Automatic annotation (TrEMBL):
EC number: 1.1.1.27
Family of this protein: Belongs to the LDH2/MDH2 oxidoreductase family.
Keywords: Oxidoreductase
Top-level division of the source organism's lineage: Bacteria
GO molecular function annotation: L-lactate dehydrogenase (NAD+) activity
Protein name stated in the entry: L-lactate dehydrogenase
Species, as recorded: Marinomonas spartinae
Amino acid sequence: MNFTYFNRNELKTLGTKLLNQYGMPEERANITTELLIQSDELGFTTHGLSLIPYYIPELQAGKMQEADDVVIVNDTGSTFVWNAQYLPGIWMMNKAMDEAFSRIKEYGVVTASINRAHHIGCLSTYVKLAADKDLICIVSTSDPAGKLVAPFGGLDPVLTPNPWAIGYPTSEDPVIIDTVTSICTFSKVREHLNTGLPMPYPMLQDKKGNESTDATVINDGGAILPIGGADYGHRGYCFSMMVEMLTQGLSGHGRADDVSRWGGNVYIQLIDPEAFAGLAVFKQQMDKLTELCLASRPKDDTSPVRVPGQFGLDCAKQSKVHGVRLNDETLNRLQKSAQEAGIEFPKPH
């Protein structure tokens, strides 16, 4: 995959101008672009600035600014439930994280469940925000209107990929676990739909249940397979049910409402290690775990064991030196969006 590097501030200006020009208030556009860039810096190219060309039609259709603010459904202090009213999901997540941060020292554990959000982007960015503050964070999301993933043993898509992430601090870099309950995200499928390239291995099934590397089957009654695939997909299926319980059951909005509009339900939990055995001993235990994993003899001497999130954090460090990298597909789409908006595109770094 080819990459072109750009100045971070110039990309942030571009993204903010694009979103603002199509109707997103400047402050929300600025926050959204900042977190999208952080996603690119962590190596999540499918959830970074590449999303802006997909957000623009939503903004043009008035689907991201139909309300002034979130609605508080319930608030107990240590828990809160919001109706996000389909406002910009990344901005909303930043707002929810700030709210949780403001309460964590008082309660030790703060949990939020949010319904009717717009797309919330990359989960790693949020759990890293918490880990950088010496907190543990769990985030998961689902779309009650989405039907992309087949339950294990079934033909018909019922579930969404249902991503979840956990981040926690160590004495050095945080550990960031970010995955989905299906073999891949829909963004990855969309990437292959755009390029026309086959999936690297059978991640989907067609409408008859045959495993497939052809991304187009998703548009003809096919489905993404759960983690474990055709043979062991019961594992991913179980995790998917868990995510929908946390995001839809606790938020009070889900498939029982026969939702037709695309959107995201979210579960966030912050945990302060100081409210348990203490931060110092927590880091001591997690440092040892990291040490043991990294010391495991590699099957391939050229590919040593890594801990989750290590690759992304390495990418972020490289971004500080070389600039933010964009792959060709993202670059082409952003350039087209900028041209249509009459906004000058930055030169490569």
